[in-house]
Amino acid sequence: MATISSLGIGSGLDLNGLLDQLRSAERQKLQPIAQQKAQQEAKISAYGRLKAGVDKLQSAAQSLNDTALYQKLTASVQGDGMSASASDKASPGRYDVTVTSIATAGTLATTRVDSLETGLTDAGATLDLAFGDGSTHQVALDAGSTLEDIRDAINADEAAGVDASIINDGAGYRLVLSSRETGVDAGITGMTFAGLSTGVTLGEDAATARAGKDASLTINGIDITSATNTVEEAIQGVTLTLTPEAEGNTLSLTVARDKGSVKEAVNKWVAAYNELQSTIGRMIKPGVDGASSGELIGDRTVRTLESRMVRDLTSSVPGGDYTQLSDLGIALNKEGRLEVDEETLDAAIADSPASVASFFAGESDETGMAGQFSATLEQILDDKGMIGNAIEGAESRVESLNDRYTRMEASVERTIERYRKQFSQLDGMIAQMNQTSSYLIQQFDMMNAQLGRNNR
């Protein structure tokens, strides 16, 4: 059988071109399937974006449903040199904090040595350190250790309790020890070398001793000491952090309800809802002036989602001073977006924080408005929920369309193969007819020539 490249040689017809046209015409049957598949894939993508928006909204609703949000406290300081933070164990109140001194680390230096190259120790040498709490620590030193080697041995010892460095005082070199922690107890108070090389005199220089100090302050007239500048639990649930600028100052500390966190959580939830509505709006927008319509126009999943959310937003929450979102200045506008009356919301948070907490969080996970709203979205987001089922259905349709496309494509190829065989037969027939025609013409020409000779 002749191949496509040889079609038309025998007949002189453009059978290859005609076969290509027939192929294009047959493949038009695939376009509706491809379009349906593209629509379903677009739906899957849209469902994914919808799910992401619902997930973000549920996360914001869960934050509003957390009772800890309404128990948060904030600590503010007036004055320089101190910062403060409050945990949920703190209580609202005002405090005057007078800082006499901050906590410092103890320091102590050795007598000087002339050179950093000189070996200072014999085998078995040690350095004994003493601290303000009466504890001691021994650092082992290698034979022939220089001042730098001694420094490195101290710094490599995690239990030494001090950091070591070297200072050149202009006449020689000194080893300087600084306590790793502040406070009287952790402060370095003495050091003694044992096993020094013959002729080496190295020891502590008492004149350089600077004892570690505890922070000293008063809170509402009550004396407080702290080994560190992070003063914890002097006020229950409150942590104070002191810096040198605080010394000699009286600062005002206020611990109060964190109204800003509640409002921030409300606004975050409102923004997530409005963002989801914008996403849905694009998905269900009808095509106008040639523009394509949204991927989920007329989709039942979207309609159900919107109706359930509106139901929760407009339902009453019994048992509290606030029973409707509108009581807090939050309402749906004509476009289906949430709007916040900042003045009304601020007043509610400031005047009735417990009522605001009761409205959003309730007494259990699903009794408040935010809890009910979050539970609704959780059902929708479940693997077997509306969105999951919609995605699964669309994926199943894509798989079915893929099968149809494959079968149709195979049918098209079989049809083209049949045309190819028919064209090959046609090409052969026309070629044979052309040969017969040429032979007959040749015979007629010979007969005419013979008759002409006979008539002379």
UniProtKB/TrEMBL annotation:
It comes from the Bacteria. The keyword Coiled coil applies. It is found in: Secreted; Bacterial flagellum. Residues 212-435 form the Flagellar hook-associated protein 2 C-terminal domain. Residues 391-422 form a coiled coil. Residues 11-105 form the Flagellar hook-associated protein 2 N-terminal domain. Keywords: Bacterial flagellum, Cell projection, Cilium, Coiled coil, Flagellum, Secreted. InterPro entries: Flagellin_hook_IN_motif (IPR010810), FliD (IPR040026), FliD_C (IPR010809), FliD_N (IPR003481). Its main location: secreted. The keyword Cytoplasm does not apply. PANTHER family: FLAGELLAR CAP/ASSEMBLY PROTEIN FLID, FLAGELLAR HOOK-ASSOCIATED PROTEIN 2. Required for morphogenesis and for the elongation of the flagellar filament by facilitating polymerization of the flagellin monomers at the tip of growing filament. Forms a capping structure, which prevents flagellin subunits (transported through the central channel of the flagellum) from leaking out without polymerization at the distal end. Homopentamer. Belongs to the FliD family. This is Flagellar hook-associated protein 2. It comes from Billgrantia antri.
